[in-house]
Design goal:
homodimer, alpha+beta, Arc Repressor Mutant, subunit A, DNA-binding
DNA sequence: CGGTATCCAAAGTGATACTG
DNA sequence: CAGTATCACTTTGGATACCG
């Protein structure tokens, strides 16, 4: 949920950037979730074959719908004492 | 999530009633979740000392807030092919 | 840089049996 | 009726190490 929310807030993000914003999840967990979300068509993965490698993640149209519906819930969750 | 949603849709519900509407969760799971939600002040538990015993569950004000914020998400999830 | 592979510990779930 | 207790099993997540 936070993953979707964070990507949605930034339009496009690189892996390391996501990691920095999601310090309570490990690398492998983020990686696995990204795979799942890509599989579920919520997130797109764009790989640039450069050196150093660069990969960008962004929400799909579906992903944005989920993100919108998620916002109010996350807002409630985070403002709860 | 479904638990909150279902209780919210019925105002007040008895345990067996909840079980009937949530056939994919076992008795013990429903019981544990209800305890947690009560602990988190999302659900109230009202026990009537009669024979046969009767216990009613309802959402608190907080619970209703969550339920509202949950609806659009659940709606999206269930209408997804 | 952007991951994957491996292993392990912890949490979640269900089936079954039993209780006030 | 409304649960709890126990146990086996599955799922999830993190730590660590390594790779193209």
């Amino acid at each position: 949920m936070q993953l979707i929310s964070i990507i949605g807030a930034h339009q496009t993000m690189r892996f390391a950037e996501i990691e920095a914003h999601l310090s309570d999840a490990s690398t492998s967990t983020i990686s696995k979730r990204l795979d799942e979300f890509e599989e579920a068509d919520l997130v797109t993965r764009t790989q640039y074959d450069e050196i150093p490698p660069r990969v960008e993640y962004a929400l799909t149209k579906e992903g944005n719908e989920v993100q919108e519906r998620l916002e109010s819930l996350l807002e409630w969750a985070t403002t709860r004492s």
